[in-house]
Amino acid sequence: MQLKYDGNDWSATLSVVGTFSNGSVNITGTDASQHQAGVMVYNVNGAGTYKIGSGSQNMGKWTQGLGQGDTYIANGALGSGEVNFTELTDKKAVGTFSFTGYSAAKGKISITEGKFSVTF
C-alpha cells in the first residue's frame, strides 16, 4: 500500500492486511513510525468504484502518530473520496483510493495516489 498525504510520499513498510467477508472489504497498511492507512468498503459486489462521503457507509482513515488528534477520517458524515477496485476476487484485491479526511484537532488532510494490492 502506498499513498501521498498532503503531497508527501508514504508506503506501508511493516504490513498490509486485508479481509473480504459478507460483501465488506477492509484494507489496512502500517509502517514503523506510527503511520497507518485504511479503507473500509461495504456492500461490495465486484470490481468498480465505491464512493466515500455523504450517503455512504464507506470510510477512509489516515493516522500519523499516537496522539488523540492524529487520526483523519472520511466517512458518511464528513470528508469525501473513493475506492476503485480494479481486481477483486475472494483471494485478492487490487486498486486505488483517494480521500479528504478530517481530524477535529488538526483540520483536514488530502490523501491522493493511494494504491493497494492485498491477498486475503
Note down, in words, how this protein is organized:
The chain is mainly β and 120 residues long. It has one domain. It contains no helices and 11 strands. A 6-stranded antiparallel sheet has the order 2-1-11-10-9-6, with no helix packed on it. A hairpin with a 2-residue loop joins β1 (2-5) and β2. The relative contact order is 0.25. The mean pLDDT is 96.
Protein topology:
Elements: E1 2-5, E2 8-11, E3 15-21, E4 24-30, E5 35-41, E6 48-52, E7 59-64, E8 71-74, E9 80-88, E10 92-103, E11 107-119
Antiparallel strand pairs: 1-2, 1-11, 3-4, 4-5, 5-7, 6-9, 7-8, 9-10, 10-11
Strand order, main sheet: write it out. 2-1-11-10-9-6
Beta-strand level of the residues, as a percent range? over 45%
Helix count equals 0
Which percent bin holds the helix content? Answer: under 10%
Radius of gyration, in Å, reads: 13 Å
Give the domain tally: 1
Mean pLDDT: 96
**Shape verdict:** globular
Order of helices and strands: EEEEEEEEEEE
- Describe the largest sheet: 6 strands, antiparallel
Number of strand segments = 11
Separation of termini? 14 Å
Sheet/helix structural class: mainly beta
Low-confidence stretches: none
